[in-house]
Amino acid sequence: MSFPWFDPGDDPGSNFPELLRRVGLDGRDGVADVSELAVPHATTCVAVRYDGGVVIAGDRRATSGNLISHRSMEKVVQADRHSAVAIAGAAGTAMEMVRLFQLQLEHYEKVEGAPLSLEGKANQLSMMVRGNLQQAMMGMVVVPIFAGYDLRRATGRLWDFDATGGRYEEKDFVTTGSGSLHAGTVIKVGFEIDMTRDAAIDLVSRALWEAADADSATGGPDVLRGIYPVVATIEADGWTRVADDDLAGRFDAIVSELRR
Length: 260
Known about the structure:
Blueprint: H1 16-22, E1 41-42, E2 45-50, E3 53-58, E4 62-64, E5 67-70, E6 76-80, E7 83-86, E8 89-90, H2 91-112, H3 118-131, H4 133-137, E9 145-150, E10 155-161, E11 167-170, E12 173-176, H5 180-190, H6 197-214, E13 230-235, E14 238-241, H7 244-259
Antiparallel strand pairs: 1-4, 1-8, 2-3, 2-12, 3-13, 4-5, 6-7, 7-9, 9-10, 10-11, 13-14
């Protein structure tokens, strides 16, 4: 193969993937473009503050392009007793990041004899997201939500992140994923200061329902298979996952309301 030459207006510059495409090595000749791989992606997750803590929730569907690759993926993961992570983006990369995050928090607590502060946990997760920037540039983006109960401030707190590792604390609620626009609209309309735990669970359930109704990548409750979103609350006493039987009743109430 001879050395490639380009006209001044057609020079790919320092863009190496573009150079490969220009010379014909774009995957058809053995060099794969990561952004075009059928990588499962996790989608819509939400978190809301209420009087006494936070509720964090996520649907169960993972998609590969226009295909449903997993129907029962758990995108909301307990990080430690008083915090949780909800993931959206490249599923494999996200789960690896969460497992490493759990290990780091456990290691810190064993070494120091006390858990890391909630803000320190958010900073640690931010560093991990920033460490994934190279893969994010190739399409393997991970954009998590971090939520927890701050024992020092005696309140629930929420953070969202961008692909570069930037972390942003949100006051009331946060959403991420392909259905975040629809879910965020529902929460914005229904949110109230000092909501009760039950009201917050109802609100995130309705938000995920509407997101699933408008976004094909977001999965709604699957009554046939008994698959419901993962919903958990975090209070001073720690993490508590809402039972599927409880969620089934709440979604039945949503269906009844819509029928009326």
